[in-house]
Each structure stands twice: as structure tokens, then as C-alpha cells.
Design a protein that fits this description.
The protein is α/β, with parallel strands linked by helices. Helix content is 66%, strand content 12%. It has a six-stranded mixed sheet with strand order 6-9-10-3-11-12, sandwiched between helices. Strands 2-1-4-5 form a four-stranded antiparallel sheet, covered by helices on one side. A hairpin with a 2-residue loop joins strand 4 and strand 5. Helix 3 runs parallel beside helix 10, helix 5 packs antiparallel against helix 10 and helix 9 packs antiparallel against helix 10. The longest helix has 55 residues. The protein is elongated, with a radius of gyration of 34 Å.
Length: 554
């Protein structure tokens, strides 16, 4: 089982102790049954058997208590380890890959699957203990009569074939329910994000509920109900199988072979005990089945993440290079991805561009022309499918992708604000911070207290200004602004283009601005235009501006 393999790798000593104490507990329980059988047949030595019975009972109880305590520790530790491990790997995973997986699938794994696997650890101890009991009891049956033993095993193997059918069928149903659970998570996220649009349109709200939310939720419950029915059939089949075996041993086998009545009594006693153990084992199957499906999903995600993860450390040489850089060059860079509602894939490139410190470059183009994709390629969030990126003639290979990304401060159009100014050492009395808050007219609404923003409950435009503030505080060599001014009024557009950008340029920063505000293009150094993933125009704005001024003076 994959779960046990993982537990052995992550906590080998605890798992060994749990298995050892489970083995002791199982052996103790099985020995009690054999001792009871001996006591029923014994005519003397009952006192010595009684003391043995008491000792075995105490040993079994103590082993069970120790196993439960160890399992509880393993249970809590496993939840923490899995969530931390998956969170770390997600943070290391390439953005394009995460976008392909989708937020609903990630949240389902992080929340539902981790808890499902962890909860399966609780029935794991009685499951393992009961298996030990069954094995010991079968060994005792073999010692009593090997012909009866092989006849019993043959019946159990034949009946187990039908049981395997039910178990495999239930596993498939659980997988389908798990897939729909991820889809339902997506619908719930869509519902909360789009609640305004749904409440404003009655037909849209009804269609969303009737065609998306309700059928998916109903499908999950139908599959889980069918799975529960299959599980009940499995339990019923187990009970029937054991009754059938007991009936064969009691009424049929004595006619085929000579069996002593006392031996037959012991055999039936052991089989009845095995029957209760097998029913208890089957009671743990639902949790273990759900854990197996959840673990497969986590393992699938984890394998992809593991293959793609990179080292988080930033070498001193690369850190120095990102501070003293002279050029970033894209050579024949391309990137292809599928876009819904369009025939074929969208291809960006080949792109050949060079960026240097102290420039303001405007990037323009229609919707869907590839501007944001180009920004993600440039900043190392996407990896080129063909072509290369160079930082001062040093090729940016996957091994240094993490270090290369430290060159950039980016405010995307779908930015995310954090309450904590993470990764920044902020002094609350820093005059630059206060001056920026005043310039952005946020000083009366936002304060920085203990390295945290006092609030992010602001309008979209004000949140964009806060995102601009955090990018300014990062003080990286290369700034990228993706439609930053789209939600700003004319006053703040003017501040952004005529004050913020020139100040950054004066500090030697490279600024790439994705914008449609052609009113301010004359403040830039270059203009790059994209159309359907291709560069169709590159204009030197400085020379153009100079020519315009010269013509005007004549």
C-alpha cells in the first residue's frame, strides 16, 4: 500500500514501533483464543492457565494503548508534514504548470485529500492488529488439522474472488466521486467570485444552479451512495462466506474425513473468532479505499511537482549579477499554449528583444495578442519552449530560473495583495514609505504597523496603488507593470506616468509598461507592438520625439 510505503519513508521508527506493538497486541489476542480452547478441553491445570490468561490479557491491552498513542502522534505529524510538503512544492512549481492544474484541483488536494489520508490512519491500527490475529489463528488451525486447514483456505480463496470484484468496483466509484469533488470545488469558487453577477441575473443564477452546481453535487452523492451499497455488499459477502465455511466444516467435511469432536469444537471456535476479525477488517476498508484514491491524486500532483521543483537558494554570484546587470536578451523565444474557443494553439514568438537599465519601454497590442504571456516569459514565470533568455550573455537555464526571477518586481493586472509585507524589511518611520503613501493619496487610509498593511479592504484602483507601493519597496532592477493604470482616474494616471516612472528610470531601473495610454507614450524610450503573438512594430520613441521637436521649431 502506497500509504504504508510513505509512512515508512517519513517516520520509519514510529511506524516500526506501531507495527511491533500491533503485532504484540494481535499475538496476545490470538493466544487468548487458543488458551480458551485449551481451557475448555483441559481437565486440570486450570489455575496455571488462568494466570496465563490474565498475563496475556494485560499484555494485549498495554500493547494496544501504546500503539494508539504512537498512532495519534503519527496522525498529527502526517497532516502537518503533508500540508507543508505540498505547500512548499506548489510554491516551487512553474506557473504554467499550476495554471494547467487549476486552483480547484490544488485546493481539493491540499484540504480534502490530505485530511482523507490522515483520517485513514485511525482505523489502520485495528486493521493491522486484526490481520495479525487472523494470520495467527490460521496458523493454529493448520496445527489442529492440516486437511481441514487446506479445505478452509480453498473455500476462502474461491469466495475472495467475488469479494475482489466488489472492492475494485467500489474503487472506481470513489475515483469518479473524487473527480466530481474537484469540479464542485471549482463551481463553489466560481459562485463566490461571481456572486454579484449571479444575483443580478435571475436566469444566469438559475442556470448556474440547475446545470452546474446541482448536477455535480447530485452526481457525487449518487456515486458515494452506490459505493456505500457496494461496500455493504462486500461486508455481507464476507459474513456469508464465513458462515458458509463454518457450515462446510461443521456438516460436510466430517463426512469426507475423520474429524475428532473436540478438534471440531476448537475449529469452529477459531473460525467464529476469525469471522469477527474479518468483519472488523472490512469495516476499515472504506477509509483505506478513500485514502488510496486521495493518495493517488496527491502522488500524481507530487510527482509532477517534484520533477519541476528547483532550489530556493540564491547564489551570491547570481545575486550580484542581478544587481549589476547590463542587459536581458530574448533570442528566438517561443511559447505555445491552448486557448479555449479557438482552433489550434496560440503561439507567441519567435521573440527577439533586448532590455537595458534606465529604459522605459511600452508594450502594446490588442487583447489576446500575447502581452502578458511575454511578460511572464521575460520574468521567468514561463519557460521558453524554444529559444533562450540571456542575462549579460549568461544563458538562463532551469537551474538558475529561481535566481533570475529575483531581478524583477512585477504588478500584473490580476495582482494579489498580502497584508504582511513579506520579504521586505520595513521601518515604519521610513520617510520614503510615508512620502509614497502621500503621493498615492493612501496615507489617510493605510498605515504600516509592525511590517503589515493596516488594511487591504479598498477599491480596485486603491489596491493597485498599494501593489505599486510594495513593488517600489522591493527595489528590484527591472520593473514590469501590466495595465497598472487601467483602473486609475486621470489624476493618478498622470502621477504614474509623469512622476513614478521617471523617478524609477532616474534610479537606473528598467521599466516595461503594458499599456494602451498612448497619451503618455512620448515619455518612453521605445514602443513594442504585438499582434497575434508576433512583434509587428518597434519604435525608438526618443528619436521620434526629437524629430517632432525639431520640426516644430522650424
Amino acid at each position: 500500500m502506497k500509504l504504508l510505503n510513505y509512512l515508512f519513508r517519513s517516520s520509519p521508527y514510529i511506524v516500526v514501533l506501531i507495527m511491533a506493538t500491533s503485532l504484540v497486541s494481535g499475538l496476545g489476542n490470538a493466544s487468548l483464543i487458543t488458551l480458551i480452547h485449551r481451557a475448555l478441553d483441559a481437565q486440570s491445570h486450570l489455575n496455571s492457565l488462568g494466570w496465563k490468561f490474565l498475563g496475556l490479557a494485560l499484555l494485549s491491552l498495554m500493547a494496544t494503548v501504546v500503539s494508539q498513542l504512537l498512532l495519534s502522534q503519527l496522525y498529527r505529524r502526517a497532516i502537518l508534514d503533508w500540508q507543508i510538503h505540498l505547500g512548499r512544492e506548489i510554491l516551487r512549481t512553474p506557473l504554467r504548470q499550476l495554471e494547467a492544474v487549476g486552483n480547484p484541483a490544488l485546493l481539493t488536494v491540499l484540504i480534502n485529500d490530505v485530511n482523507t489520508i490522515s483520517s485513514s490512519l485511525l482505523p489502520m491500527l485495528p486493521f493491522c492488529t486484526n490481520i495479525v490475529v487472523v494470520i495467527v489463528c490460521l496458523g493454529y488451525l493448520y496445527w489442529l488439522s492440516w486437511p481441514l486447514f487446506f479445505g478452509t483456505i480453498a473455500l476462502l480463496l474461491i469466495g475472495g474472488t467475488g469479494q475482489r470484484f466488489f472492492v475494485s468496483r467500489g474503487q472506481r466509484l470513489l475515483k469518479l466521486a473524487r473527480e466530481d469533488a474537484s469540479k464542485l470545488q471549482g463551481y463553489f469558487s466560481l459562485m463566490t467570485d461571481g456572486i454579484k453577477e449571479l444575483q443580478l441575473n435571475h436566469r444566469r443564477r438559475q442556470d448556474f444552479f440547475e446545470k452546474n452546481l446541482k448536477p455535480t453535487a447530485a452526481s457525487i452523492q449518487k456515486q458515494l451512495f452506490t459505493w456505500n451499497a457496494v461496500y455493504l455488499l462486500t461486508q455481507t459477502w464476507t459474513r456469508f462466506l464465513m458462515l458458509f465455511v463454518i457450515g462446510m466444516v461443521l456438516f460436510v467435511f466430517p463426512k469426507l474425513m475423520q474429524v475428532d469432536s473436540q478438534l471440531l469444537t476448537g475449529y469452529i471456535l477459531i473460525l467464529l473468532y476469525i469471522r469477527s476479525m474479518l468483519v472488523s477488517i472490512m469495516a476499515a476498508v472504506p477509509a483505506l479505499s478513500r485514502a488510496n484514491v486521495a493518495f493517488q491524486k496527491i502522488e500524481e500532483l507530487g510527482l509532477r511537482l517534484k520533477l519541476s521543483s528547483s532550489d530556493e537558494t540564491v547564489s551570491s554570484e547570481m545575486a550580484e549579477l542581478t544587481q549589476s546587470w547590463q542587459s536581458v536578451e530574448l533570442k528566438n523565444v517561443t511559447h505555445t499554449y491552448y486557448r479555449e474557443k479557438e482552433d489550434g494553439d496560440f503561439e507567441l514568438g519567435p521573440i527577439n528583444l533586448t532590455f537595458r537599465p534606465g529604459e522605459i519601454v511600452f508594450l502594446v497590442g490588442g487583447n489576446g495578442s500575447g502581452k502578458t504571456t511575454l511578460a511572464k516569459l521575460l520574468t521567468g514565470l514561463y519557460q521558453p519552449e524554444t529559444g533562450d533568455i540571456y542575462l549579460d550573455k549568461q544563458q538562463v537555464i532551469p537551474d538558475i530560473q529561481e535566481q533570475y526571477r529575483q531581478l524583477f518586481s512585477v504588478v500584473f493586472s490580476d495582482f494579489q495583495l498580502f497584508d504582511d509585507l513579506l520579504g521586505l524589511e520595513i521601518v515604519e518611520t521610513d520617510t520614503k514609505v510615508q512620502d509614497y503613501l502621500v503621493k498615492l493619496q493612501l496615507d489617510h487610509k493605510v498605515k504600516i504597523v509592525n511590517g503589515k498593511l493596516s488594511t487591504t479592504a479598498l477599491s480596485r484602483g486603491q489596491c493597485q496603488r498599494l501593489a505599486l507601493l510594495t513593488a517600489y519597496l522591493e527595489d528590484r532592477p527591472f520593473y514590469v507593470f501590466d495595465e497598472w493604470a487601467s483602473n486609475q482616474d486621470p489624476v493618478f494616471k498622470g502621477i504614474f506616468y509623469t512622476q513614478v516612472l521617471p523617478e524609477l528610470k532616474a534610479k537606473g531601473k528598467m521599466i516595461l509598461v503594458i499599456s494602451h495610454d498612448d497619451k503618455y507614450f512620448h515619455l518612453g524610450d521605445r514602443l513594442i507592438k504585438l499582434d497575434y503573438g508576433r512583434i509587428v512594430e518597434q519604435t525608438n520613441l526618443v528619436s521620434t520625439s526629437n524629430r517632432t521637436l525639431t520640426t516644430g521649431s522650424c
